[in-house]
Design a protein that fits this description.
By secondary structure, the protein is α/β, with parallel strands linked by helices. It has helices at 3-23, 72-83, 96-100, 118-121, 162-171, 183-191, 202-210, 239-251, 254-267; strands at 47-52, 88-93, 109-110, 125-132, 135-140, 155-158, 178-180, 197-201, 216-222, 227-232. Strands 7-6-8-5-9 form a five-stranded mixed β-sheet, with helices on both faces. Strands 2-1-3 form a three-stranded parallel β-sheet, with helices on one face. The protein has a two-stranded antiparallel ribbon with strand order 4-10. The longest helix is centred in the first third of the chain and has 21 residues, at 3-23. 39% of the residues are buried. Mean pLDDT is 90; it is low at 1-23. This is Extracellular solute-binding protein family 3.
């Protein structure tokens, strides 16, 4: 073979390698496990299509699907894609209400900080749990909310959430709950002084506190049995394989590592460091 021909062949191989490296790109995520160990039948061949609800700091670091390079759930999805032998990961931003009423389509799974509840299980199919979250107490920095006086404060919650259920069932405040249609509305009300406390998942509140530039702080949490699960599309043939991947990532320390790096380091503290109050 002539030198020029060899050079072209080497260049072509380099291009192929570059294309392959680009194609199998999972942002800034650390990938573990064995590629192709859990073969699935993706909705679109060659890619894992994952739905979520943005913004979700810590879980997906970026406000648009094009800017996300890491985050707990993003990197969890990347590891599932790798173990499924898929070189491409595509994130779709959807409405939470549409997702939780089974109205979203054309995806493989959703990772969207969704608590598994008996009511939701009647509507959508969940994976095995992958994260445990308690109920946090978010206040404006300098607030005088304490374990002793929280019941007399104006508490904001999102309707039909674990925070709402916990407040009404266990905390039972003396002031009427302020119920909002969306969690972002709860945060806006807290910033505006319309409520004294925002109650939701500790992990979710830590993300909000981290991006508030010191204006808000998670001062406590209440113990809760709630756990997060992936949501599968109706009739998915991949539930067993993806559940296997999640169990393996729990067993081999992948999810624990993601919690520390993607949540603890990004937020400046881990959920485990937040003190517990009693209702």
């Amino acid at each position: 073979m002539k030198p020029a021909t060899i050079a072209k062949a080497v260049a072509a191989l380099g291009l192929i390698s570059a294309v392959s490296a680009y194609a199998q790109s999972y942002g800034n995520c650390v990938i573990t496990g064995q590629k192709g160990s859990i073969p699935i039948k993706p909705f679109i061949p060659g890619q894992l299509t994952v739905q979520t609800v943005l913004p979700a700091p810590g879980w997906y670091n970026g406000d648009t699907t094009a800017t996300i390079k890491d985050g707990f759930e993003y990197c969890m999805a990347a590891n599932i894609a790798y173990r499924a032998g898929l070189d491409k990961l595509v994130i779709q931003n959807v409405s939470r209400d549409a997702l939780m009423t089974g109205r979203t389509k054309d995806f493989d799974l959703a990772l969207a900080v969704v608590s598994i509840t008996p009511e939701r299980k009647k509507v959508v199919n969940f994976s095995v749990p992958y994260f445990k979250s308690n109920i946090g107490v978010l206040v404006k920095s300098g607030s005088k909310v304490t374990e002793e006086n929280i019941r007399s404060k104006r508490i904001g919650v999102r309707q039909a959430t674990a925070g709402y259920t916990y407040a009404t069932t266990f905390l039972k405040p003396t002031e009427p709950l302020k119920v909002f249609a969306d969690t972002t509305e709860v945060f806006t009300a807290l910033a505006a002084g319309q409520v004294d406390v925002a109650m939701s998942d500790t992990s979710y509140l830590l993300g909000q506190a981290a991006k508030s530039n010191g204006m808000m702080k998670v001062v406590a949490q209440y113990s809760s049995p709630q756990e997060y699960g992936a949501v599968f599309p109706a009739g998915s043939a991949n539930e067993a394989a993806i559940n296997k991947a999640i169990e393996e990532m729990k067993a081999d320390g992948t999810l624990a590592s993601l919690e520390q790096k993607q949540l603890g380091e990004k937020w400046g503290t881990s959920p485990a460091a937040i003190p517990f109050w009693k209702p």
